Amino acid sequence: MRFTAALILITSAAAAGQQQPLREVPFTQVRITSGFWAERQTINAERTVWANFEQCEKTGRIANFELAAAKLQGDDIKPDQFNGYFFNDSDVYKAIEGASYILAMAPNRTLEAYLDELIARIAAAQQPDGYLNTYYTIVEGLDKRFTDLKNKHEVYCAGHLIEAGIAHEQATDKQTLLDVAVKYADLLDATFGPGKRHDVCGHPEIELALIKLAKATGQDKYLKLAEFFVDQHGKTGLEGHEPYGDYYQDLTPVRDMEQVAGHAVRAMYLNCAATDLAAITGDKGYAEAMDRVWDDLTLKKMYITGGIGSNPNIEGFGAPYDLPNQSAYAETCAGIGLAMWGHRMNLLHADAKYVDVMERVLYNGIASGVSLKGDSFFYDNPLESDGNHHRPDWYACACCPPNILRLVASLGSYIYAQTDDTLFVNLFVDSEADITLKGKKVHVTVRTDYPWTNAVALTLTPESPLQLAVRVRAPDWCSRIDYLVGDQGLVAKPKDGYFIIPMTWHGNTVEINFAMPIERIRAHPMLAPDRGRVALQRGPIVYAVEKAGNFADPSRLVLPLNAALTAKFDPDLLGGVTAIVGRGLAAPKTDWSDTLYSPGAKPDEVDFTAIPYCVWDNRTPGPMTVWLPESPGLIDSPLDPSISATVSHCYDGDTPTALYDGREPKNSGDAEVPRFTWWPQQGTTEWAELNFAKPRRIRSVQLYWFSDVPRGGCAVPKSWRLLYKDGDAWKPVTGAGDFGITPDQYNKVKFDTIEATGLKIEADLADGKSAGILEWKVN
Predict the structure, then answer these.
(1) Which residues of 86-105 are buried (b: 16+ CB within 10 A; e: fewer)?
(2) Has this prediction a pTM greater than 0.90?
(3) pLDDT digits over 42-95, tens only?
(4) 39 among known catalytic residues
(5) Pair (504, 525) in one structural domain
(6) Is 315 one of the catalytic residues?
(7) Closest-CA residue to 374 (of 344, 409, 347)
(8) What is the pLDDT of residues 740-764, one digit of tens each?
(9) Active-site residue among 97, 154, 315, 331?
(10) Which domain holds residue 727?
(11) Do both 508 and 582 map to the same domain?
């Protein structure tokens, strides 16, 4: 089959009377040869792909297909034999997609043979009519399929199956998995659409996958089904579909959207499909809506790293300018979704501003999602850590590891774009590409050590001399770009974020130099956590200061206005990076326990090293921060220095200091304040302690419980009790009233006055639920 049908893209766009949009230069025509992304692609192919499959085997994700196949053959498979979450099939499909991209770039008999065997196991689990979902086959029963599209991710899993099938056929010319995917897509087409079922999946993905399938097969019915699904989002129940709400991207019809809201990954996948449709069909309603949503996201709801989705409660968006640093969610999958959407918006509009955002998230908020060894992963990517946030090797909900696998493997698709007669250079990556322009084959070479250095050499070698206008992106972070052809400077005028270089190409080279100074970046004044603070950026790279490699605690580091900063490439540091070295101030802690006013201790001058944010937490674990105060007056934490907290367990994205940080929650699901949770502990007995530097007389406490039900897995506990530390012994308080578990308020417990050096909560978690605390007041 091998991708015969970009025809529908061109035909539909032309029929709509719009200018033909850009086309990506697919990664199969691009070879990344050295540098930042080549190193990551090597690790991706050698370690990350096998780490994904090893975990899919170990956690039973792949065994689920064998169990489903056995059940189809009449074996007595019990529901409790199913492994993990109901959407676990999708992780296997994404890993296959990533592995296929790796195969497309270089033969690997071991990997190809593994995929052949795995695909055979998947195919054996498919129903005769095309349906394929191991959870419903094993647990719910096929009579219940498509009965809970809001929550159960059936069609989401189908979308990832389709993407994997296309990628595998593209890499190997084998249709074994694509045949499975097409059979399922045909079932969906027979089930949903005008005159059939009017419904959508609660997690968008099928929409963009069907568009890919339409291009791959030339079958217009898949494009029409994708249009139908996109159009159904947010529709009223007049046609049988009751909208689910903005968390599911199903509150407002897509053409009417004014802002980005709800679950971040869901939003990005739906926006990708809507943007594809705007390019294919010329639908101005989709294009205008996407423009509005893009502005809302990038001007009000995006971290400096390109991370999106600040609200851990819904893995999604908060209010405008609600971008806390330590509790930032910024899911790796959401960043990947933003890169995918920015890529599509660039193809739609031929405007480099979308690539600016894509580049920002690629080098920062996505690259941080995988360790330098390639076998451990961040789910969420905060911009500040007290030292408790690390990359595990897998997750129960493991969407991010295979997602970053497939993104890194296919990175070549993001570098160039083209029309029939114009080349667009979007990303500056050491690479080679073979492209057809004006009917002639053109070999494109880029030589650079970007982002560490500022020089790029662009060479075009057509089969015969060719007059071409090449457009080279002028990055938004760069204030000056110099072009040199031979020994002559080139005057180039920017348009839509591109410098246009019209010349006759015959193997000649343009030298491009970007001004790449160290910049202090300031946040919009509405971003309260970042007022009076700066982030360091050089080129597209955002920097962080972590405890490793520094004498000062990053949370106490001050960067005065006159501090000198120097960029220095260190080949032995974290795989070879350009670090920023400087001299700042280390503000000592002031003991406020016995005073209301204090002159404070004089800060000490210290040397420090900032590293690219994307490589933090690859050395000795410790605190990290991106935003640095410019004045010692901003450094003191509201935390009481005479209190410390210890807990039985703390989720990676949370912090025990949230127990006593004084941040008042608005409700039990408040995502604007730091939180502490025992997640993913469920139905167990857990504890949290406050320890005091000096004995305190205490007569009551107040607890504000965290709860994100029904969307999340944390609820108030079944019960709890309070103990106090008397010497070395823990004793229960006496004379206590009710130990309240009411959400959305403080639960106050009075008891006989005690003198203690510590307090301990022991909580019995609800069955199947975890719990957390937003604030713990001690009176």
Answers:
(1) bbbbbbbbbbbbbbbbbbbb
(2) no
(3) 999 999 999 999 999 999 999 999 999 999 999 999 999 999 999 999 999 999
(4) no
(5) no
(6) yes
(7) 409
(8) 999 999 999 999 999 999 999 999 9
(9) 315
(10) 643-778
(11) no
